[in-house]
Design goal:
Blueprint lengths: L1 H10 L3 E3 L22 H15 L4 E6 L7 H10 L3 E7 L17 H20 L4 E5 L3 E2 L7 H18 L5 E5 L9 E2 L4 H11 L3 E6 L9 H10 L3 E6 L16 H13 L10 E4 L8 H20 L3 H9 L3 H12 L4 H10 L6 H8 L1 H8 L11
This protein binds alpha-D-psicofuranose and manganese (II) ion (MN) (2 copies).
Length: 386
Amino acid sequence: MTDAVRAALRGQRIELPSWAFGNSGTRFKVFAQQGVPRTPYEKIEDAAQVHRYTGVAPTVALHIPWDKVEDYTHLAGFAKEHGVGLGTINANVFQDNDYMLGSVTNPDPAVRRKATDHLLECVEIAAAVGVRDVKLWFSDGTNYPGQDSIRARQDRLAEALQETYDALGEDQRLLLEYKLFEPAFYTTDVPDWGTAYAHCLRLGDKAQVVIDTGHHAPGTNIEFIVAFLLREAKLGAFDFNSRFYADDDLMVGSADPFQLFRIMHEIVLADALRQEAGIAFMLDQCHNIEPKIPAQIRSVMNVQEATAKALLVDHDALAKAQDEGDVLGANAVFMDAYNTDVRPLLAEVRQEMGLDPDPVTAYRDSGYADKIVAERVGGQQAGWGA
Ligand code: PSV
Ligand code: MN
Ligand code: MN
């Protein structure tokens, strides 16, 4: 049992977002930090530090055009030299004046063309560097009743998704992310998992849903969505983060570690932790007031802790209690696992992997933070204000 748990923890993979290393903030203020990356290359250097001390975060997701470079193959080579690889390519059709009334659902066909061309560019970039996943999130929606046809916008969305899907290579995937609201406040064109699921179902096997844990109405039972999509083989990825209110993008596992445990329990039950199961576990966070590299390290550790607890659930005892209708017994088995202190186990697993058992302290003692403050002047904003 413990050997299997340790092996699963050693084999776990968590993808880092390049944008977590840049300056970020709210719409009220971006607090610039010292030593932040000035280029996509420097974001990769920082991400490599997170992998160096955790050993389970070997890929970096890119956001285009925030991470636009002349030569993506060169960037991929640079990443490799730093012990990491490029991950999911995220499209960005939410930061251009032309997209005020929407990107792929805009009433103007010329704007829709421009947006879809960007999605196709992302598929091309992914193909050029051998990346499997292209992740799409649309800020599209309306603010006022009557502003546009809800139904026509679904048609336009379907058309753009189809064109993008048709451009995918054999081994590529289109990952569709939903979000309840913001920046649109009346309707959002992909507001929930049901909408994302229905579009992905029509598109085919290479289209799957992304669950961003910050994108639901308060109180939504996210593990239900996880269980449902897993059962339908339509769960492609997570964007992990924590929230107290809306899309707060705080460190995963900081607001509600129990929810994260419940989510990871569904993953373990479905045997979907294995990389071959094809679920991409990504972070989508910004660190507005805390230092970014240690925050990413902490986030990876939080996911590991929730995973370790989920792996410790006694499935035989749980199934027995469930079969017998033993409500309290089943809940007790579940809570026993959640209440286990898995930090010593994870420290051992790290040692088995040749790592320092305490990644946060090891990073702090490395002197890297001082080095980047001294070397980098004029770090860039991650790309957006929220
Ligand atoms: C939108 O809120 C989102 O979650 C999407 O994943 C974007 O790509 C990302 O945030 C940008 O931070
Ligand atoms: Mn997201
Ligand atoms: Mn978000």
